[in-house]
Amino acid sequence: MIRNKDGGTHMSGLRTALTSSVNLYAKKKKLLKGDALSGDDVREGLAAVVSVKHPDPSFSSQTKDKLVSSEVTGIVQTIVYDKLGEFFEENPSVAKQIVEKALLASKAREAARKARDLTRRKGVLEGGGLPGKLADCQSRDPRECEVYLVEGDSAGGSAKTGRDRRIQAILPLRGKILNVERQKHNAAKVFQNQEIQTMIRALGAGVGNPDPDKEEQEEGVFDTSKLRYSKIIIMCDADIDGAHIRTLMLTFLWRFMRPAIEEGYVFIAQPPLYQLTKGRVSKYVFSDEERDSVTLELQGDNPNAKIGIQRYKGLGEMNPEQLWDTTMNPMTRTMLKVTVQDAEASDELFEILMGDDVPDRRAFIEKHAKEVTNLDI
After folding, report:
1. How far apart are CA 61 and CA 202, in angstroms?
2. How much is the pLDDT for 183?
3. Which is the catalytic residue, given 35, 40, 239, 347?
4. pLDDT tens digits, 41-80
5. Of 280 and 359, the one with more pLDDT
6. Cβ contact 203:257 at 8 Å
7. Among the options 195, 237, 317, 321, which is catalytic?
8. 211 counts as catalytic
9. Residue ranges of the alpha helices (H) in 29-91?
10. Catalytic: which of 146, 151, 317, 351?
11. Sheet of 231-235: strands edge to edge?
């Protein structure tokens, strides 16, 4: 038996299955009213022994401290998830105790976070320090630093674990931020939003004036030279909700931090949609078309060859190693740079799509409905 002191893919499978099964049971039995329980909350106080027999295991180094065989994650995850679900159904009193223990841990963590924030916060735009939920990078050279604005605490946890701590900062954002297009004449309400406060303080460059009717536009209030990062990377789930959150973030950046977009600081992360596996060969693909072509490539001369296909419905389904390999590794990742060719047209488009004028938005949708290629219904 080989002890892996640094864990690995078998432990990733256990953690994912445990968090998913506890959350599923809690929601099913209406024991959970708010956000999903985090992995840390579920695992607090837990001790586990995971034993895996593998005919040809792969390790991260010759010391064999960490198992990296990617196929093990899904196997362990499936077994633990199924068996734990059965156990919960057969032992409801024990399952309820586990959920209550995790809820207690969640409340304690949230109370501690609020206490920390209370002591740090002096004001939205004053020197109140960095936000507590920001996992900052070690480097202080903005030219090499980048920050990921991540949808959800679950994905944020995986990103924090899998990142390059030297140059990559992680800022998890809970839920959908305020639609600032409908509040651009009421900046005070915008700045009351907790997630927007967090972004402003983390980026460190102030905010501009979004009100087009105000005579003094206060140019220079948002100063890109003061940005703490050279890349602001929006990382959301590859679904309709993720697209909406991404649009809300871009709307905020366009209205309050426009120079960041105009000067090329803003990027969109491109997480994969699928992982395709044949034996020990694993490939990540980013579209249905690529899935089909890579499937044929892996099958080769044997069209009946079995190809394992995993669909990622959200960033939280990827373990830290997978998130790093596919979406965060500067050597292998794919990102889209947000650019502006026509500022006036872009301004008008944000106003139509995110503003209060319903007739204009309906007319735009009717005009471009036939151009839609990825409809999520």
Report:
1. 36
2. 78
3. 239
4. 899 888 889 999 999 999 888 888 889 888 999 999 999 9
5. 280
6. yes
7. 237
8. no
9. 39-43, 70-90
10. 151
11. 168-173, 146-151, 231-235, 266-269, 335-337
Query: How many other C-beta atoms can be found within 10 angstroms of the C-beta atom of residue 104?
Result: 12
- Considering the candidates 241, 262, 290, 360, report the single residue annotated as catalytic: 241
151 is catalytic: yes
Q: Please say if 237 is a catalytic residue.
A: yes
Q: Which two tokens stand for residue 23?
A: 């959350």
The token duo for 37 is 């329980």
With a CB cutoff of 8 Å and minimum separation 6, the contacts of 10 are: 4, 50, 52, 67, 72, 73, 76
Residue 259 Cα distances to 128, 211, 343, 350, angstroms = 24, 15, 11, 16
- Tokens coding 88: 């919960």
pLDDT of residue 114: 63
Domains of the chain by range and CATH? 9-120 (3.30.230.10), 146-270+336-358 (3.40.50.670)
CA distances in angstroms from 105 to 14, 58, 99, listed in the order given: 19, 35, 10
Q: Are 73 and 12 in contact (CB under 8 A)?
A: yes
pLDDT band at 212 (very low <50, low <70, confident <90, very high): very low
Q: pLDDT tens digits, residue range 64-75? A: 888 988 899 999
* Structural tokens at position 59: 């390790």
Whether 288 is a known active-site residue: answer no
Percent of the chain exceeding pLDDT 90 equals: 41
CA angle 336, 341, 342 (to 5 degrees): 135
